[in-house]
């Protein structure tokens, strides 16, 4: 597999507080990678920096040769929170905006995803439950044809049965050459999909390991992740 994303010496501070320090990470094409860490570890910040949303960082980010924020945005799809739209905006209006802004947005693909998610295009954002809103964000994200998908806690408000169906369909939605970086608390739910696991702890990438290597040592992904906090719990 070819190298897709390279992060070198990334450090990010906000309000004089260090959020990320000396982060180094390489991701290859065609992978599904879990980004794991406790709340406040910096997972969302790392994704926002990769996506070109959070700026004023130190270090280098290279996404298939794209190093500038605007260049990277064209090569990735990020699950933002639809914060730029008013509550009165209808789903179909959001879709038209995406189709206008993103040249790689496939309206036919979105329509298939919308039906799968059981979303009514006439519904306003104010009418959507948290779970429905997250389903819409996932559909918008995967309707773009990009090299990298960044899914930041995408399933928090979705019920268990619907979550399982969506997770099982992720492989079908993504191109085989694309990579998904997914941050989520449902480690067991997504573990069967994973090719690699990245652990964020103590403001940096502490571990980056093949999921097969973890499984070969007779550990589940969740047990492997929890082992990084066992010593702390015993103190």
Write a brief caption for the model:
With 235 residues, this protein is of the alpha/beta class. It has 10 helices and 9 strands.
Helices and strands in order:
Elements: E1 3-14, E2 17-28, E3 32-36, H1 43-50, E4 58-63, H2 69-73, E5 76-78, H3 91-101, H4 107-117, H5 130-142, E6 148-152, H6 160-173, E7 179-183, H7 187-190, E8 196-201, E9 204-210, H8 211-216, H9 221-226, H10 230-234
Helix pairs in contact: 4-5
Protein name: ABC transporter, ATP-binding protein
GO molecular function: ATP binding; ATP hydrolysis activity
Domain ABC transporter: 5-227
Describe the protein's architecture and organization.
- GO terms for molecular function: ATP binding; ATP hydrolysis activity.
- It comes from Lactobacillus ultunensis DSM 16047.
- Residues 5-227 form the ABC transporter domain.
- By secondary structure, the chain is an alpha/beta fold.
- The chain has two domains: 3-75 and 147-234, Rossmann fold; 85-145, no CATH class.
- 35% of the residues lie in helices and 26% in strands.
- It is built from ten helices and nine strands.
- The protein is globular.
- The N and C termini lie far apart (42 Å).
């Amino acid at each position: 597999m070819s190298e897709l994303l390279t992060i070198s010496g990334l450090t990010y501070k906000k309000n004089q507080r260090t959020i990320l320090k000396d982060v180094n990470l390489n991701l290859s094409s065609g992978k599904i990678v879990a980004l794991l860490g406790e709340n406040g570890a910096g997972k969302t910040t790392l994704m926002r920096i990769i996506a070109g949303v959070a700026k004023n960082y130190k270090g280098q980010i290279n996404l298939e040769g794209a190093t500038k924020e605007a260049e990277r945005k064209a090569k990735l799809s990020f699950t933002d929170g639809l914060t730029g739209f008013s509550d009165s905006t209808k789903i179909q209006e959001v879709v038209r905006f995406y189709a206008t802004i993103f040249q790689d947005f496939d309206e036919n693909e979105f329509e298939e995803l919308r039906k799968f998610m059981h979303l009514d295009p006439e519904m306003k954002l104010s009418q959507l439950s948290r779970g429905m809103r997250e389903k819409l964000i996932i559909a918008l994200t995967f309707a773009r044809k990009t090299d990298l998908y960044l899914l930041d806690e995408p399933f928090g408000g979705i019920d268990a049965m619907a979550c399982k169906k969506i997770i099982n369909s992720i492989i079908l939605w993504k191109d085989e050459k694309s990579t998904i970086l997914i941050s989520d608390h449902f480690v067991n739910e997504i573990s069967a999909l994973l090719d690699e696991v990245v652990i964020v702890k103590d403001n940096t990438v502490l571990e980056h390991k093949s999921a097969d290597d973890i499984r070969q040592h007779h550990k589940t992904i969740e047990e492997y992740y929890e082992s990084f906090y066992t010593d702390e719990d015993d103190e």
